[in-house]
Amino acid sequence: MSAVALRLLVVEDDDSIRTALRWALEDEGYDVAEAASGEDAVRAVAMAAPDLMVVDLMLGSMDGYAVIREVRRDHDLPIIVVSARADTHDIVAALEAGADDYVTKPFEVKEITARLRALRRRAGGGTPDRSPGEVVLDSDPAGPLVLNEGRGTVHRGDEQLPLTLTEFRLLCELAASPGRVFSRQALLERVWEHGFFGDERIVDVHVRRLRTKVENDPSAPRLVVTVRGLGYRLDPQ
Known about the structure:
Elements (H helix, E strand, L loop, with lengths): L6 E5 L3 H13 L3 E5 L2 H11 L3 E4 L8 H9 L6 E5 L4 H10 L3 E4 L4 H15 L10 E5 L6 E4 L4 E4 L2 E2 L4 H12 L7 H9 L8 H14 L9 E4 L3 E4 L3
Parallel strand pairs: 1-2, 1-3, 3-4, 4-5
Antiparallel strand pairs: 6-7, 7-8, 8-9, 10-11
Helix pairs in contact: 2-3, 4-8, 6-7, 6-8
């Protein structure tokens, strides 16, 4: 029996680009749906629950940033932005909105497929040499913070925290070696796997997002700590 194809939504208002992406991704084995506007994309995600999404930023009245934020309210599917905007501000803004990766136009389709494969590997769980199980990161009696890499979950008390795929992988890497300082470049290589686009500031963006979800006071973090000039470390509480 053949494997069920992963459902992928392409959100792009340029008909020629959208069609070319669909054909290329279908050749890679994906079950591809299309959306030509932000509004159509949000409806498609609500109705069909795709496994992955590729989205442009320039979509008219509801742009890609708004689409990502809306999707992130209820879904944690991997999201790749494909955009002609190459300015660092735009890249950081897309990641802040909740995107997992960013590819600038013009691009080779094989780059998109490589990044999709990397996101799928990360979605598959932790690295194979780690045994699954619960790790208490913060023993706060009011609500302990518990990471379960095998299950792919993080709980604060009885509440499961809505971490994105990249945030979860980042927390797992830090938690694997508590007290160890990881440079931004080391985290890029471990979490993003394919090296991303080389801008280490994306690590800062995802650390900020992670802190808003796992820290009791994100403005004064005690769990995910900045080591000035070196990088980040995790200090279990």
